[in-house]
Design a protein that fits this description.
The complex is a heterodimer.
Chain A: E1 2-6, H1 12-20, E2 30-34, E3 45-48, H2 53-62, H3 65-74, E4 79-82, H4 84-89, E5 92-94, E6 106-109, E7 120-127, E8 131-138, E9 143-147, E10 152-157, E11 160-166, E12 169-172, H5 183-198
Parallel strand pairs in A: 1-2, 1-3, 3-4, 4-12, 5-6
Antiparallel strand pairs in A: 6-9, 7-8, 10-11, 11-12
Chain B: E1 2-4, E2 7-9, H1 12-20, E3 25-29, H2 32-41, E4 45-48, H3 53-59, H4 68-77, E5 82-87, H5 91-100, E6 104-108, E7 129-133, H6 136-144, E8 149-152, H7 162-179, H8 186-193, H9 197-206, E9 213-215, H10 222-230, E10 236-238, H11 240-243, H12 248-260, H13 265-272
Parallel strand pairs in B: 3-4, 3-10, 4-5, 5-6, 6-7, 7-8, 8-9
Antiparallel strand pairs in B: 1-2
Helix pairs in contact in B: 2-4, 2-12, 7-9, 8-9, 10-12, 12-13
Chain lengths: 202, 298
């Protein structure tokens, strides 16, 4: 399978390194940097990395990514967003209010833990196919303030949701790509693999 | 602080913020209005300072940390990270910036050094530092002191890319060279570089710095930004290049786009075509030694 990592700005390289550590039975995982919308046709799933959401929004607007990603999502291809990626995929964004795709029924508040001084790493547990201990790194992170009834919360920090899934959309407020454990990326690749067998060939 | 396999470097969460800035443009701003322009143009972060480097160069005198009022005003008006500069060795300016909650402190040669012998002990702070370097040895000394991000120095306020290119090439080729050496050569190399041995060994093994490496000092056009990215910079700092040009907003936007599409000449041509004149540049060879900013720090 081929996973695209949106490479307009942010820690896309860390996501590619995490994908390189993924081992799926019987299926090699290839990754590619996405800078143009036409590249979306070649990939089975997309990762939107951490970075600055205002920068990403600006560049996505400049290069036609808004309609292109709506089409990608409508075609049933999975998308995984971390930090800024979560902000872009959410329904409503606050502080400040800004455009979001609304692909997952969660509302987020930007920089909700504070500035860099308040960034932190903490041990946690994520509910993948089984519970898995994972270090969670939060960098000027957003907070999920509301998760709709159709959303499955997959990890919490102090009782608040920090990782969630709805259908083909997976989001995390923290950065699984910055830890050596490729578990979350492996889970996303399995989402892509299952989706791909369910979809008719393009 | 992170310690693994005997390597003492900056806290992982601080290196992580530098990771998030990759592929982006960090713009010098002197007030809230400029910060807004930068954010709207797609800057990944802004750097708050009293005067841009070309004005510091023109006006002379002592260049210090920006005023607290100004930094707060900039923090209040943008949602992207706000960095600010402290003088080399001026750990109290750094303490004040830490108290203000700036997201990154630049211990910068652009300001007048406060200490001609010692840089700041960056491990003593809860906010991260970026420092400048002209070559690999200097970069490793700063990383050894706890810098979570490096930037090659270039010659700030010159509008001339030649020094930025020189310094980036020196760091990149210095690392490449280390990867070709045998283990028994590394201690001598550490001595020659004036760099911590453990860091020299780490570079020899990995071929890259343990923290992100950005470019600064002389970027004035989209082509300059793309050049530095192709030479190995992971993001760029633009100082006087934006707000000393005739078309700051358009130029800021064009440099942001060029930094993303740095390998795509068609995009680079497209983003450059509407731009007015860049800032006037200086011939660095004609500057007196005492006018160079890059030689500050060691």
């Amino acid at each position: 399978m081929k996973i695209g990592v949106l490479a307009l700005q942010g820690d896309f390289d860390q996501h590619r390194k995490a994908l390189a550590r993924v081992r799926l039975a019987g299926e090699p995982v290839e990754s590619v940097e996405i800078r143009k919308t036409e590249q979306l046709d070649e990939i089975d799933g997309l990762i939107i990395p951490g970075g600055e959401s205002t920068t990403l929004l600006k560049l996505m607007g400049d290069w036609g990514f808004v309609p292109a990603l709506e089409k990608f999502h409508a075609a049933g291809k999975p998308i995984f967003g971390t930090c800024a990626g979560l902000i872009l995929l959410a329904k409503e964004v606050d502080r400040p209010k800004q455009f979001a795709f609304g692909f997952i029924d969660v509302d987020v508040e930007r920089n909700a833990y504070g500035r860099q001084r308040e960034s932190f790493a903490t041990p946690g547990v994520v509910e993948l196919d089984a519970p898995r201990p994972l270090e969670m790194v939060f960098i000027r992170a957003p907070r999920i303030r509301r998760a709709g009834p159709g959303v499955t919360v997959m990890a919490r920090h102090r009782d608040e949701p920090v990782m969630a899934r709805e259908g083909t959309i997976l989001v995390a407020a923290f950065h699984p790509e910055l830890t050596h454990d490729p578990g979350v990326h492996e889970y996303f690749c399995r989402m892509v693999a299952r989706r791909r067998t369910a979809l008719p060939p393009a | 602080m992170t310690e693994s396999n005997g390597l003492r470097i900056a806290d992982r969460k601080h290196i992580a913020l530098a990771e998030m800035l990759k592929g982006g443009v960090i713009m010098d701003v002197t007030n809230a209005e400029q910060a807004k322009v930068a954010e709207k143009a797609g800057a990944a972060a802004v750097m708050a300072l009293e005067r841009v480097p070309s004005d510091i160069r023109r006006d002379g005198g002592v260049a210090r940390m920006a005023s607290v009022r100004k930094i707060k005003e900039i923090q209040d008006c943008v949602s992207i990270p706000v960095m600010a500069k402290a003088r080399i060795g001026h750990f109290v300016e750094a303490q004040i910036l830490e108290a203000l909650g700036v997201d990154y402190i630049d211990e910068s040669e652009v300001l007048t050094p406060a200490d001609e012998h010692y840089h700041i002990d960056k491990y003593a702070f809860s906010v991260p530092f970026v420092c400048g370097a002209r070559d690999l040895g200097e970069a490793l000394r700063r990383i050894g002191e706890g810098a979570a991000m490096m930037r090659t120095k270039g010659e700030a306020g010159s509008g001339n890319i030649v020094e930025a290119v020189r310094h980036m090439r020196a760091v990149v080729s210095g690392m490449r060279r280390l990867t070709t050496l045998g283990d028994e050569e590394l201690m001598t190399e550490a001595k020659n570089l004036g760099a911590p041995y453990e860091l020299v060994r780490w570079i020899a093994k990995h071929g890259t710095l343990p923290v992100p490496n950005f470019s600064a000092g002389g970027i004035a056009t989209p082509a300059d930004a793309a050049l530095m990215m192709q030479l190995g910079a992971e993001a760029v700092f633009v100082g006087s290049g934006i707000f000393k040009s005739k078309d700051p907003a358009a130029r800021a936007e064009a440099i942001v786009r060029a930094t993303t599409h740095f390998r795509d000449p068609k995009v680079l041509a497209e983003v450059s075509q509407e731009l007015d004149d860049a800032m006037p540049g200086l011939d660095v060879r004609k500057l007196a030694e005492s006018d160079l900013l890059q030689t500050r720090g060691w």
